[in-house]
Design goal:
The chain has about 400 residues and is α/β, with parallel strands linked by helices. It folds into two domains: about 100 residues, no CATH class; about 250 residues, no CATH class. The strands form five sheets. A six-stranded mixed β-sheet has the order 8-6-5-13-14-15, with helices on both faces. Strands 7-12-11 form a three-stranded mixed β-sheet, with no helix packed on it. The chain is globular.
Length: about 400
């Protein structure tokens, strides 16, 4: 919970929100461990915030302000509090606290370990150089994790020759935006949350269903069916195949552990993965708003600078492991969702250079082993990440 800068910033809003949360928490009877709160807002009212929650018997802890001054971010202050809370609520719930007794270092959740791996690979350590600016996405069955580590945030440059747009200058609205950060798209994954793609405008307008149907007919004009579950979601009319996308997405949601086995279903899955990465990047990379006279830039511009896209996750791992030609084509389709798209030139995604975590080792080698021998960990990552030629 955050809000308000220190020394005179907004206090009314966070106090109001604290009272509402404290009074409402009792209705969350499904939460075995209650509703824990981390307060990282205006430090002028920290004591009052703690009193509000403690009076309602709510587990609350306070850190420093995550934004102590306007546009000055201090994200690290909450990392340790989140880690400790994660251990208390999640790890002990799964019994991992027993395992930690046999470990020589602190337990690290997988997304945090992956972030440490990205930071290590980007910056390098000792005599081992890093690879420079990185945007990484770990696409899973339920969520999609976003990681970034860059050295600078250059101003956006219009990439084409339109003279009216070329002369527009760019104004940076967020000058102190963090250059290394991790976020999670909790609504978008390839299995449990597949049906959430139906919320997107591209689905509601019918463009997504049309794109899949058109691409499917172009790639498989002689398809006659495979006799599997996919057949029930494909209909043939006037010599063309059409996919019943809403029904298929609901089926995936209800059958999250059934993986695509045929070339045709893998192809459809790759387009859905592309759309998942498209929304994950659109929500977390920088963007510009174009006016008549200038571009207003918010967030980090990954497009104008040299930046490597790293793709992580079970989908990537399994396709690399099987090493079939059509699966490599699927990976190219997936990657397009996270790369710069001329049709959305105001969304500042990275451009062209792609590495695959083909052995699924970013978190284990980069994040965990990297704490013991960071230079060797970087070398292992470099040796095992595979370039994707687009």
């Amino acid at each position: 919970m955050s809000g308000g800068v220190n020394e005179g910033g907004d206090a009314e809003t966070v106090l109001h929100n604290a009272k509402v949360l404290a009074e409402s928490a009792k209705f969350a009877t499904y939460a075995k461990y209650g509703i824990p709160i981390i307060y990282a807002g205006n430090e002028d009212v920290t004591e009052q915030i703690l009193d509000i929650f403690q009076n309602h018997h709510i587990d609350v802890r306070a850190t420093g302000n995550i934004m102590p001054e306007v546009n000055k971010y201090n994200i690290d202050v909450v990392n340790e509090a989140i880690r400790e809370l994660f251990q208390t609520v999640v790890i002990r719930g799964k019994g991992f606290d027993v395992v930690e007794e046999y470990m020589s270092t602190k337990f690290i959740p997988t997304p945090r370990a992956a972030f440490l791996g990205i930071n290590l690979l980007a910056r390098g350590y000792g005599e081992e150089e890093g690879i420079g600016n990185i945007v990484a996405l770990d696409i899973g069955g339920c969520t999609t994790d976003f990681f970034a580590n860059v050295r600078s945030n250059p101003l956006y440059l219009y990439p084409w020759n339109d003279p009216k747009k070329k002369v527009k200058r760019t104004i940076l609205k967020t000058p102190n935006y963090p250059l290394a950060y991790r976020r999670v798209e909790g609504k978008y994954g390839l299995a449990y949350n597949a049906e959430n793609l139906m919320e997107l405008e591209k689905f509601r307008s019918g463009k997504m269903e049309k794109e899949i149907s058109d691409c499917f007919n172009q790639k498989y004009p002689n398809f006659q069916g495979n006799g599997d579950h996919l057949d029930q979601f494909l209909i043939r009319q006037e010599g063309r195949w059409y996919i019943k996308l809403s029904e298929y997405l609901k089926w995936i949601h209800n059958n999250p552990h059934i993986m695509p086995k045929t070339e045709e279903e893998n192809f459809i899955g790759s387009i859905l993965a592309k759309e998942t990465l498209a929304i994950a990047t659109a929500n977390n990379v920088g963007r510009v708003k174009e006016t008549d006279v200038y571009f207003l830039q918010e967030g980090v511009n990954f497009f104008t600078q040299d930046c490597t896209l790293v793709l992580v996750g079970g989908t990537v791992y399994h396709k690399c492991k099987e090493n079939r030609k059509y699966l490599w084509e699927d990976l190219k389709t997936i990657a397009k969702g996270a790369l710069f798209n001329p049709e959305e030139y105001t969304v500042l995604r990275p451009d062209k250079k792609v590495l695959l975590d083909a052995s699924y080792i970013l978190s284990t080698v980069g994040g965990l082993y990297g704490r013991l021998d960071p230079e060797r960990a970087i070398r292992i990552l470099k040796e095992n990440f595979k370039p994707l030629e687009l």
